[in-house]
Design a protein that fits this description.
Helix content: 40-55%
Number of domains: 1
Largest sheet: 7 strands, mixed
Structural class: alpha/beta
Radius of gyration: 17 Å
Distance between the termini: 22 Å
Number of helices: 7
Shape: globular
Mean pLDDT: 94
Strand content: 15-25%
Order of helices and strands: HHEEHEHEHEHEEEEH
Number of strands: 9
Oligomer: single chain
């Protein structure tokens, strides 16, 4: 049954994505808000298909942050980006610049939400990322970052990158940690029935020293995530 449910969802996802990507191409030539609206409809339809075809529901815990804050989340699957994009209401998302080169997907992502970072550019990459992030904050929108930089399997050792601390220090805003357990249910092609939990944790106030911030961020996210992953 897992294979059948996964195949049904994948069929839905591929058809949905292809049709919307082609039909809404003209939106790339108009103001960003139109692309944001389309992207949100695509995310909602994808999660609807996940519930209907794969039997994966979701549960949101904690208060959703509003306005110009930094949101730092655990990352286990594509579900995380979709769910957080909807929950945060038009965030700017810190992501690898290479993703913007993917036809259709990268074009829409770049228009709607991207704060790209070139990992090979060193300190200059952080300056450019900070400039883009400040523009997002000026619009009253939150910034979403995955501080480990890539997806992690449930139970894998944490590997938090220093970029999140640099961004936190330069922006001077609170940081809201996010824990989740999506990797238990969304495992590549395989989709396992159940309920994914997404939890917004207590905000970390601005102004902490780099080491103190990184320790607090990792501890809060990992403790909450491990609690969710227990049988």
């Amino acid at each position: 049954m897992t294979f059948l449910r996964s195949a049904l969802f994948m069929t839905w996802f591929l058809i949905l994505t292809l049709v919307m990507a082609i039909i809404f191409l003209p939106l790339l030539a108009v103001p960003r808000k139109a692309t944001v609206h389309m992207a949100r409809q695509w995310a909602r339809a994808t999660l609807w298909g996940l519930r209907v075809f794969a039997g994966i529901k979701e549960r949101q815990i904690g208060k959703v942050p509003q306005g110009g804050v930094l949101v730092a989340s655990k990352h286990m699957s594509m579900w995380d980006t979709l769910a957080l994009y909807l929950a945060l209401d038009d965030p700017g998302i810190v992501l690898k610049r290479e993703l913007l080169r993917i036809p259709f997907y990268g074009w829409y992502l770049g228009k709607a939400a991207a704060i790209p970072i070139d990992r090979g550019a060193g300190a200059d990459a952080l300056r450019r990322m900070t400039h883009s992030a400040k523009q997002v904050l000026a619009e009253g929108r939150p910034i979403l970052i995955f501080p480990e930089g890539t997806r992690k399997k449930p139970g894998a050792p944490p590997d938090y990158k220093p970029g999140v601390a640099g961004l936190y220090g330069l922006l001077g805003v609170a940081c809201v940690p996010v824990a989740l357990n999506s990797g238990r249910y969304w495992q590549g092609f395989a989709k396992h029935q159940g309920t994914i939990s997404l939890e917004f944790l207590e905000a970390i106030p601005p102004g902490l020293k780099r080491r103190e911030f990184m320790t607090m961020l990792e501890q809060r996210i990992e403790d909450a995530t491990n609690r969710m992953l227990r049988p």
